[in-house]
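Quick sanity check, Tyrosine-protein phosphatase:
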Amino acid sequence: MKRILNLEGAINLRELGGYPTKDGTTIKYNKLLRSGDISNLTNKSLKYLKNYGLKYVVDFRSTSEQRTWADTTSNFYKIYSDPVYPLRGNGQKLVNLVKHDEYSYLGAIYQSVVLDAHGQQAYRFLFNLMLDNDQDKQSLLFHCAAGKDRTGIGALLILKALNVDYETITKDYLLTNLMYEDTKTIEKTLNDKNGNQSINKMNMTKGDFQSITSIFSAIDHYYGDFENYLNTAMGIDKDKLAKLKAIYTE
């Protein structure tokens, strides 16, 4: 199976299936897709996604982005608006209290997202929808604009929850950099001159190893460990976590 799905009208669309877990299982194919913008999907791409079993689409972009680049609609999947930004909780304040080394530009932002009450609410919605995606031959796609930051955090949380090892999580996150070796692609298709300039800057900034490290450092600092974060912030207790693993791994 291909990791990178080069479908016309999609940006940075990738399969999450096939990754091994530390439990000795593997993430199932045809269950989870991560992506950037999907506002220009062609009929050929839609046919592929229908055969893939796509049923749920979670859009992490702001309402402004969703208006400017509306997702391609279809009768075989439902689109769920789930904006990560603007953050409305105390995430940024909590980041300032974390004792850490100097993290990258993206790293500090990622920390604020995973600690912010609104950011947590957005990813909690994703996890709850994942629990509904329990039928065979049905899949879920989550995306933002570049498929790097908001989507990258979502993928990281999912892979960590499914007990994928740190090295694999890192490789999946950094794979986006290969997709955007030519930053003109992002500049041409994603930057909204009248939109949120912070989001534009994030889209143009390459991911780095420290970005991922910063997330786990912030979570460990405030929650002790990732399992407690899942339970407290995501509402995923041991029973729900077992169900997630049953749905998405084999």
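Posting the structure with no commentary besides this: The mean pLDDT is 88.
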